[in-house]
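Table 4 source record.
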Amino acid sequence: MGGRILTTVLALAALAGTAGAQSAPEVRNVRFGVDGDTTRIVIETATATEFNAFTLADPSARLVLELPQSVWAVAALATGEGRGHGLVETFRFFDSSADASRMVFELSDTARVVEQFPLPPETDGGNHRFVVDVRRADRSEISDQAGFPEPQGLTALISTRADATYAEPERERRVVVLDAGHGGHDPGASGRSGTREATVNLEAALELRRQLEATGRYEVILTRSDDTYLTLEQRVRIASAARADLFISLHADSAGPNSTARGASVYTLSDHGAGRARQRALQSTDWILENAPPRRAEVNNILVSLALREKRNQSAVFAEMLLPALEQVGPVVSNPHRQRGFYVLLDSQTPAVLVEMGFLTNGDDERNLNSASFRNRLMSQVAATVDAYFARMEEPSSGPERHASLSPAP
């Protein structure tokens, strides 16, 4: 490629594996370069290795590289995924059969492969390289590409079985799960005047349920409706079992001895949390596709990754809509949209946010959260945002429903 190439390098260390895996090719490095609307991907291996690369547009834009079964470890990324550069947002390595491995690169836009070729080592004992250049393209260019694979094998399985397995039936009302944090022997944070976080969380959840149910548009499920203790896993499972369309966990913050910190914030799932969510989902029988050996694990990996990214997308949309609404009632903290790996956000399919309504360690916030009038106004903003969020999701430009719409997360 002409022009200046900006390169990002992810050094990959070889994993110790089984005796059979030790003889497999080692993937040692992945590099990215950008030149205008073209992104170059360079895969470095210890020995000469055959690759086949092609792009797909549905259910999301991605580049797929097929190679013989290989040994691969991404340094410091236990989840087996990494970030890309240029058109490549993220990538993930799949090793799910005895004779094949696959790399899936999630793209920010539809693209086509313009070149793919091997290169010998630059020095004696150096790495062999396989180069793939992808360029931004519209869907018609992709479908017209010579050699573009017909929907068969894994692609056909994903496109047909994914919809059949995960497309939820039409429901008259959206399902919203409200999670009042803490409870029972876990009171949560304590206010300067003795306020229990578990109490204000529950009062807020009950008020939000009242307002949402009054619209007639929602089925509202509470993880707890009294001062009961629930484990974090129980809370997540309630949302999963209900196939919730939205999960909102309500909390009140604490800043310890710092009494000046105040204001609301909204948390969505972090990158680290996404890795935990993926592993949790893959251990669940909900994601098992039967009758698809020997590549069932690979299919499940792809489906989980796509659904998880869509969940993060939608969670972020709701968070960004909610924050200015909360600010109509009270202050918000600086950088109020935050990301953490909170366990209650780990369901791989349900858009989820954790709302910190204010700081109990701040006198003004504590008085507000103890005020039924304030909670009413605060929850009315949350309810209005729920309405606006689902209205946005139902717009034609927003794409298909959850479980069918699978697009990249930011």
